[in-house]
């Protein structure tokens, strides 16, 4: 284990032992469907996360009005992490690196956390449904490297929409949901930042991007900007510590709950603002808060829309669906660049 990754894991372990988490309190509000959940990250000027903040350190506004924060969770909140792995041409060495460093990186996760794996090129396939077993995750990565051809094209927008749909349907309600995408951000198809951002908002999921270096240049899918709009971040995947740091950043996020305003309409987009309270800004004058600035009014429990993600049959290799107009999200046109 390199020195940087070791420091990350030791720092996390120390905070985990000494900090008391509000998640251990009786969950009075989380089962209340009238509550809205906001996921936020606080970083300093050097882009380092600021841990150990408390409910009184935040101010939340909805529609410009300050709203009481009814409940709060931080590092001990369980995680559902969906790894979205690009297996198109030239991505094999980067997926290999993910497999090589996963053993140490996954030490950031707790026993209540779950992992799923989806792979994509021009189609999207579920490699591993959500599981709490790190051994199973490692096994599936090794199997992926042995079975994938890594010679296809790429539809990154389609994969992000499918991943958002999957985590919306399969993610636990009381878990922090995150999609970690590994890609070179080069796609053959038109990008659609707005559609992906809406899908992530509906899924209540943050996206974190690991961007692999590449010599192939088609067009950007906007992966880093989409991740930032979701309240997440993007970083180059050029060192072994990148995965561990990404998982630690997900762990160090904060979750704030406020009451759904009266008179709102299901499916409506609403604006929110999260900032540090005066006392916290005095302690951390160069801090900034990252979060999704819009949220979707819940639709009352209606089932999520169908997804084109397919699952690998055990008796035959991957089940591959070709991209077509019938797989598009509402209002989305999937156009391949020639």
Walkthrough of the structure:
This protein is of the alpha/beta class and 338 residues long. It has a domain at 79-251: Rossmann fold. It is built from 8 helices and 15 strands. The protein has helices at residues 3-18, 92-105, 134-147, 156-170, 193-203, 223-229, 242-251, 278-283; strands at 35-43, 58-62, 65-67, 71-73, 79-86, 114-120, 124-131, 176-183, 205-211, 234-236, 254-259, 269-276, 288-291, 294-296, 310-311. The strands form 3 sheets. It has a 7-stranded mixed β-sheet with strand order 10-9-8-5-6-7-15, sandwiched between helices. A 4-stranded antiparallel β-sheet has the order 4-11-1-13, with no helix packed on it. Helix 2 (92-105) links the parallel strand 5 and strand 6. Helix 2 crosses helix 7 (242-251). The N and C termini lie far apart (44 Å).
CATH superfamily descriptor of the domain at 79-251: von Willebrand factor, type A domain
CATH class of the domain at 79-251: Alpha Beta
Please state the oligomeric state of the protein chains shown: single chain
First and last CA, distance: 44 Å
Overall morphology: globular
Q: State the major sheet.
A: 7 strands, mixed
| Helical residues, percent | 25-40%
**Architecture (CATH level 2) name of the domain at 79-251:** 3-Layer(aba) Sandwich
Runs in which pLDDT lies below 50 for 5 or more consecutive residues are 3-31, 301-333
Pattern of helices and strands: HEEEEEHEEHHEHEHEHEEHEEE
CATH-derived topology of the domain at 79-251 = Rossmann fold
**Overall radius of gyration:** 20 Å
* Percentage of β-strand residues: 15-25%
Biggest β-sheet: strands ordered side by side in the sheet: 10-9-8-5-6-7-15
pLDDT averaged residue by residue: 82
